[in-house]
């Protein structure tokens, strides 16, 4: 019996799961090697094929190569990062200050993925109950790009410590466009075995067994064969 064309081969499945498990938020390992236009185009195409509620496709992509623009973003990051550090105390504060949380100047390309909150008009199919589905959809575009980048050997770092209003001004965004993700892209010297925050003791990965519930919040999986399967792959 032939395998249906919509099925993935075992090798294809392994490649998909490898990209998922080996994807990293990169800050420190960027190389100066340029990303060829045809490779960047592939990553953007992967992002553009993300699912979106009502097929609204609310994303746009701002490719940032200018050192001047990036220097302004770095200054913005440093101000916000100082504010963030003040939220912690003692050893936690010192550990925070020792973390490298952006690669804006080190990476060959910066990319801002935006969300046009007016895309599709005032009535988008499937958006009447949850208005923020445009933001959720744009996050899926980010994830598509991130996984495609990992498959191409390209690291991605999401810089979230930025004032969104200042970022919008720096990138000349219209009022109805939200700068959802500011990303650093580039080839890297290595992909770490663990997420960097885990390796440096900031946080550990939670146990999946404790995050799966049955028939409602807190419902036990004790009698479910799913529990044994989860424990096997923990």
SSE order and pairing:
Blueprint: H1 10-22, H2 37-48, E1 59-64, H3 67-85, H4 90-97, E2 109-116, H5 133-151, E3 154-158, H6 164-170, E4 177-187, H7 196-199, H8 225-232
Antiparallel strand pairs: 1-2, 2-4, 3-4
- Total helices: the number is 8
Strand content: 5-15%
Could you give the order of strands across the largest sheet?
1-2-4-3
Radius of gyration from the CA trace? Answer: 20 Å
Instruction: Kindly state the number of beta strands.
Output: 4
Q: Which structural class do you get from the secondary structure elements? A: alpha+beta
First and last CA, distance: 34 Å
Q: Whole-number average pLDDT?
A: 95
Could you give a short account of the major beta sheet?
A: 4 strands, antiparallel
Helix content: 25-40%
Unreliable parts: none
Rough outline: globular
Order of helices and strands: HHEHHEHEHEHH
In brief:
The protein contains 8 helices and 4 strands. It has helices spanning 10-22, 37-48, 67-85, 90-97, 133-151, 164-170, 196-199, 225-232; strands at residues 59-64, 109-116, 154-158, 177-187.
Supply the key terms:
234 residues; alpha+beta; four-stranded antiparallel sheet; 38% helix
Outline the structure in words.
By secondary structure, the protein is an alpha+beta fold. It has eight helices and four strands; from the N terminus they run ααβααβαβαβαα. The chain has helices at residues 10-22, 37-48, 67-85, 90-97, 133-151, 164-170, 196-199, 225-232; strands spanning 59-64, 109-116, 154-158, 177-187. Strands 1-2-4-3 form a four-stranded antiparallel beta sheet, sandwiched between helices. α1 (10-22) crosses α5 (133-151) and α2 packs antiparallel against α5. The protein is globular.
